[in-house]
Amino acid sequence: MAKLIVRNSGPLHGEVKISGSKNAVLPILAATLLTEDECIIQDAPALRDVEVMNQLLMSLGAKVESDLENNIVKVKAEGEISCEAPFELVKMMRASILVLGALLLRSGRALIHLPGGCAIGERPIELHLKGLRALGAEINEQSLAKGIVDAKADKLTGSTIYLDFPSVGATEVIIMAATLAEGTTVLENAAQEPEIVDLANYLNKMGARIKGAGTDTVKIEGVDKLHGVDHHVIPDRIEAGTFMVSAAITKGRVLVKNMLPDHLKAVIAKLRECGVVIENTDEGVIVDGSQNTIVSTDIKTLPYPGFPTDMQSPFMALLTVAKGPSVVMETVFENRFMHVAEFNRMGANIRTEGKCAIIPGGRQLHGAPVIATDLRAGASVVLTGLVADGTTEVSQIYHIDRGYEHFVEKLKALGADIERIDD
Ligand code: EPZ
Fold first, then answer.
1. 171 and 254 both lie in a single domain
2. Top mutation candidate among 167, 175, 304 for ligand 1, by most atoms within 8 Å of CB
3. 144, 111, 109: which is closest to 125 by C-alpha?
4. 9 and 112 part of one domain
5. What is the 334 CA–ligand 1 centroid distance (Å)?
6. Quick check: helix, strand or coil at residue 152?
């Protein structure tokens, strides 16, 4: 199994360019099924999850030209499209569920074997199904009991749908399904993440009529047809946040280019509370961890615009060495503290109580063999490896490959002592 060897690196310096957003490009690729025209997706990050989504689209019958060296994917879903998403692809990437709404519209049926829970939680989809039922889809209950989503709909009709929780995936699946439904759909308590705004912008360029994306109420007027577009994906706010923390934790100074600070207000506010100096310039965002002592702060993860759950473990890495105790509360996923055991192997001495982790802070960490328990946690143990005494060996790094483009190369360019050992 490939692994990363990370050594104490001293302060990072230089500049890093943020790649396109994984969580924006995946729903946008799913939405290419909504037209027979060619769609050109630019700034698509070269990630394992993008490759899996491309394979899924090809398995459904779409023509996919993937040039991830140049961050371009062209999709043309012309003619007959299969309604069944192959299990071997769905189990590699839960986000395969994002094709559900588009498949239903395109083929009148969608058959997806669910992969079940994962490291960070059970990952139910009852809200996705609640929305599709409200639009007129029939979900086979017997199949569902066996973990198979078998949804049918001759046509979809607009409706008002309330989401009990502002689920990102459910919001995206319902918006996609509503674009070609008959009549108007109003989605209440919708997720407000920037990736949903990017999806809505992409769909509106295809001819959809979506208003209110990025707020808790999204209105979609169904149209008859959507056409192909050429779209640039927004930068990845979680990758940007991860590199901001890399400058803070090593007391370095890094220029983060091609990021949108507005997408990271909560994270920037919290980094400033810790004493990190952050300056927006025309070149990008300068993150300086060398000016002040890095002190602790408390974190509570919430749906956007609250502090993002995907930044919980990277930020916890900083808190293990920050001066003073802190409490991190994870309210979005039920089991997203798997990285705590890895930080503790490095001497962090963190205690968890239910949804809370109590971090004593001010530790001098030591290198250890650790594992990446999810893609963000994988990046987090690399961050602590940069400041720990000695060497940290990170395994199960396929998680990192899922969500961070050229992660090792970008860190090396900032002066990190890191190398990848492939089998
Ligand atoms: C998206 O996952 C992201 N993935 C996740 O990023 C991110 O952590 C998450 O949103 C929250 O921001 C992609 O966009 C591909 P949710 P998603 O539905 O859509 C519960 C990463 O690291 N829920 O908003 O699966 C669910 O159990 C990944 O890039 C229900 O209860 O997230 C969870 O506790 C990890 N019922 C919470 O909502 C439902 O029907 C958030 O889930 C749906 C969700």
1. no
2. 167
3. 144
4. no
5. 11
6. strand
Structure token digits, residue 272: 């400033």
Total structural domains within the chain: 2
Task: Classify the C-alpha dihedral 385-386-387-388 as positive or negative.
Answer: positive
Q: Atom 1 in ligand 1: which residue has the minimum CA distance? A: 168
Helix, coil or strand: residue 366? strand
In sequence order, the β-bridge partners of residue 13 are 253
Same domain, 131 and 244: no
**In angstroms, rounded to a whole number, what is the distance separating the alpha carbons of residues 230 and 7?**
42
In tens digits, what is the pLDDT along the chain, a chain of 423 residues? 899 999 999 999 999 999 999 999 999 999 999 999 999 999 999 999 999 999 999 999 999 999 999 999 999 999 999 999 999 999 888 899 999 999 999 989 999 998 766 677 777 899 999 999 999 999 999 999 999 999 999 999 999 999 999 999 999 999 999 999 999 999 999 999 999 999 999 999 999 999 999 999 999 999 999 999 999 999 999 999 999 999 999 999 999 999 999 999 999 999 999 999 999 999 999 999 999 999 999 999 999 999 999 999 999 999 999 999 999 999 999 889 999 999 999 999 999 999 999 999 999 999 999 999 999 999 999 999 999 999 999 999 999 999 999 999 999 999 999 999 997
Ligand 1 atom with the smallest distance to the CA of 127 is: 40
Range of the domain at 355: 3-15+236-421
* Domain final residue, candidates 232, 256, 288: 232
Where among 183, 206, 232 does a domain terminate? 232
Residues with CB under 6 A from ligand 1: 22-23, 26, 95, 121-128, 165, 167-170, 191, 309-310, 332-333, 375-376, 403
Same domain, 66 and 10: no
CATH of the domain at 216: 3.65.10.10
Residues 173 and 242 in one domain: no
Secondary structure element (H or E) that encloses residue 259, with its range: none
Distance between CA atoms of 212 and 220, rounded to whole angstroms? 9
Residues belonging to the active site: 118
Mutate to test the pocket of ligand 1, among 168, 334, 398 (most ligand atoms within 8 A of CB): 168
* 194/65 same-domain check: yes
